[in-house]
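hey so i finally got around to running the thing on that chain from the lab meeting. sorry it took forever, my laptop kept dying and i had to restart like 3 times. anyway pasting the input first so we r on the same page abt which one it is
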Amino acid sequence: MEKNFNGFIINGFLALFLWFISLALVFFGFMYSGGSILLIVSWCVVALLLLISSAGFMSVEPNEMRVMLFFGKYKGTMSRNGFFWVNPFYNKIKLTARARNLDVEPIKVNDKVGNPVMIGLVLVWKIKDSYSAMFQIDSSSRTSASPTGVNLATRMASFQDFVSIQSDSALRNIASEYAYDNNEVAGETTLRSGGSEIADRLEAELNNRLAIAGIEVIEARINYLAYAPEIAAVMLRRQQASAIISAREKIVEGAVGMVRMALDKLATENIVDLDDDKKAAMVSNLLVVLCSDEQTQPVVNAGTLNH
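ok and heres what got predicted. didnt touch it at all, straight out
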């Protein structure tokens, strides 16, 4: 597990000041050695030590960390910001804790009832545990170098590859647990209507899979959802049919209410006395007018003419 680096650290600017003073002493030492072999060798040794010590300078930017290794042994993670000098024999591996986006391309999966759907994902992730990120997964897959020998960009790209593969797997797993919409399973959470519930499940699934790599998912959301092309046309017609049926139900419900209101008004205000046959005819005519797709043309009956 990650631990804070507690090794010997001094302020980098102070160390740099002392380093330049030592460099000046070496220069004057060579100048005034008087040709003494012993003095020249001594100042050469001091110059070599200064050269080696220059490798101890390092800077740590905000949301950046350095994994400290001493001849292969993990000594801790330096996350304090600033300019420092440490033991030059430490291997100071740079990592970043800044948040990164990943847009997972839509993949074809089968939903709960077996329909093929295309589903995509966008997530925000960052490194939470530098030790796990550095030593639990192989970050040298893009190069033949060892994990500690690759640069930051290559190392972070390897982490991105790991997150991408695990996100693909988690997305397939979650998508198979839910139906596409309520037309398949009534009253249950679906991929279309799930919203925050689906997002929470995705986030929990991804954090569980990525914990081994010390990576934390801050947010995960479905950003693309559609039926697969081979069934998209059929499903569209089914959705259109369902919409038409729902609209018809509303129209019929409203028409029946209007007919009831008309009959009640006629009876209450004694406008006309209708028997059952005339009421049935009136109801039939009103329903035709109210429920018709096209504009109806009324036929006016002005009464009968007696010759």
